[in-house]
Amino acid sequence: MKCLVGTQLIDESDARISPFDRGYLFADGIYEVIAIIDSKMLDAQRHWDRLERSCGEIDLPLPMAMDELKGRIAGLIEANGVTEGRVYFQITRGVAERDFAFPETSDPQLFAFVRQTDLVNTPAAHDGIAAVTVPDLRWKRRDIKSIALLPQTMAKQIAKQAGAGEAIMVEDGFITEGSSSTIHMIKGDRLITRQLSNDVLPGVTRASIFDVCADLKIAVEERPFTPDEAAGANELFLTSAGALVQGITSLDGKPIGEGKVGPVTQLLRNKYIELALQTAD
Ligand code: PDD
Q: Could you tell me the maximum CA-CA distance found in the chain, to the nearest angstrom?
């Protein structure tokens, strides 16, 4: 597979990045993950917009003009012939003397890779996944898509050890989000999901699911909810560029609803894929 280091499209085995890059020393960087179906990027504009915002929040200049960046990421997907899967890219502040404050001039570094993998027809899409709750150990600016992901890796490890597919993080008694996803529940005829703030990442798939709900005339309520409320919901599901829309069939070992992927989750997933493909590029 080829990856992108700066403007160079090279074999992954030849990729070299300096250990003095601030991404390596301080996790000083921003990333994005975009889903690919039919060789096209889903919700791409929303991902570019979030990337720009995240970089702006930490004063990190883009390594190249946005149009060039878009073109290079598209070129990476094409060069690898990926038809379905994910593209990952990150921008770090580049090489500098190890000093906590930002360097006077930075030379931001782009790194991107892509993977072919099934997104539409997966066992988890059909069967759903189990989830467990864990304490949210993260920092106070979770709206920034930082590459500093240690608390999320620890959360996911707890989920894995419990035989679950996602860890749902809880703070002050309320669910914030999944370790790498947004959490939603269906209660009656409404979709309920936490409101945006510095406490959660503004999920791109979340925003697109709101569009799907508008189309389907499903009311959306944005408010915090507890694990107990989630456990008693009709349906529980997550959204992310990695999993699209995925049913959660149990929480901390207790089944949600009938313990199967619910009909609204299924409908939202199908409609999301259909709508996202119409605008994909
Ligand atoms: N994660 N919340 C967190 C903490 C996330 O890491 C993610 C995505 C989401 C969902 O955002 P979106 O719908 O824009 O993918 C919410 C990506 C997929 C990852 O880290 O691999």
A: 58
What is the rounded CA–CA span in Å between residue 161 and residue 46? 34
Tell me which residue of 217, 276, 221, 200 sits closest to 245, measured CA to CA.
Answer: 276
Cα(182) to centroid(ligand 1), Å: 7
Look up residue 47 and give its two tokens: 């991902």
Query: Identity (one letter) of the amino acid at 87?
Result: V
CA pair distance 277, 158, nearest whole angstrom: 34
H or E stretch including 209?
helix 204-216
CB 166 within 8 A of CB 238: yes
Catalytic residue, candidates 40, 145, 156, 271: 145
Give the DSSP H/E element, type plus range, for residue 274. Answer: helix 263-279
With a 6 Å cutoff on the Cβ, whether 238 touches ligand 1 is no
For 138-161, the pLDDT digits (tens) are: 999 999 999 999 999 999 999 999
pLDDT single digits (tens) 24-70: 999 999 999 999 999 999 999 999 999 999 999 999 999 999 999 99
Neighbouring CB atoms inside 10 A of 59's CB total: 9
